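Input sequence (212 aa), recorded before submission:
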Amino acid sequence: MARKKLHRPIAAMARKIREYRALKDRPRDSQRFAVDYETMRRPLTQKRLPVRAWEDVRNENRLLALLCRLPRFGVGRTVTRKSWLWAHRDPCYWVITKVKADYTAENMDHGRAWGYLTFKGKTEEEVREIDKAMYHDWRIVPKHEEEAFKKFIPVPEVTVRFLPYPPLLRAMILAQWQKEGKPIMEEPVIDLEEGLASPQEWAKKKATGTPV
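Predicted structure, token format:
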């Protein structure tokens, strides 16, 4: 017979107090992501930033460092990243809907932000937290350029249904056709729609087998 578990309210309260103290004593974002621009190290962990990031750290800004300069912390404004501008032709940006600044930071340039993400012209319907806000590559889209920046003409997606066989497999298929006396009127290709069969169909085909 299993021993009945005793309710220990004092131990439960002590555990909650320890969890609260650990949560309260954890370093804030302003401490975690602070940078010594002379040594390019984070003072809290003494970890050195990658050499490739030094130029952006010196010349670009973090997200909250830009939003703290705007009225209402930039709610309603459009922000993008330098890496997106270089990598993608289609518009990629965030529309800020909510900002929770770290008021213990010196300039309130740390915290969290939420918004609607548009990536490669496709806008998500749900608000979510903006990731990589501590990266030094954020830029604000000026208000008079927002309409032109968001302008996007979708390109119709081209779907490929047929693909050529690999050379060795193609030669084997042609040899099989020639052996069977079939006229070679067209090039053998892979039909992708037929290839996407369910596991039940694959099991049935494997059970019946194919004559060689």
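Checked by second reader. The longest helix spans residues 9-25.
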